[in-house]
Amino acid sequence: MSALGRPHLHYAEIASTNERARELAGAGAPHGTLVTAASQSAGRGRQGRSWEAPAGSSLLMSLVLREPSDLLPLAAGVAVARACGSEALVKWPNDVVVAGPDGGLLKLAGILAEGRPQEGWAVLGIGLNVAVRTEELPPELHGTAATLGLEPADVPGVRERVLAGLEEMLALEDAALLELWRERDALAGREVDCGEVFGVAAGVDGAGRQVLELAEGGQTAVDAGEVHLRSVG
User: Fold this and answer.
1) pLDDT tens-digit profile of 20-45?
2) What burial letters (b/e) apply to 188-216, b meaning 16+ CB within 10 Å?
């Protein structure tokens, strides 16, 4: 069993596991404190998006981490992808996806790392579709979401795999972690759009930034924001 995940607070319903974990972190909760829920009413993902799932169908967890690695988001992406199986990939920096039938990417899990570096802590939130039936999701998620297709009783086992994997990833040297991330890179060699710049995704650099090969030659690195497929096929 992973050393992460203790103490463990579980809620039948909560507004946001990340918000609760942030409260606990600010109050001095120890490294590894875990908050889980069967249902969230105000779950959040990256860029302020909501995270929606039927009660009991998803892994909804947030973890308090002391003195977190700068590569925490990438470590989390690799850990979750490995827990999901060989088909799971990571879309920079840490969305866990699988390839769709048309060559697009379907989202299995979202990861949100928040924290206060000046206070030496971060909260890592993970939402993973374990037993979701995609037809039960809001219509706007049809065709963009994926699921492991398991049963609600499987959520605890998946959680333990994620925790054990995260502990393993956080113990690695940066170079070893980044190599594992590159093996799961969902965007490598594909045309992507970063909003202000587009190019061909060329992996990550030593700082975990998304590298793009530019049409006019040369490369640039993106360290924040969203990266989207520019074309499929």
Assistant:
1) 999 999 999 999 999 999 999 876 65
2) bebbbebeeebbbbbbbeeebbbbbeeee
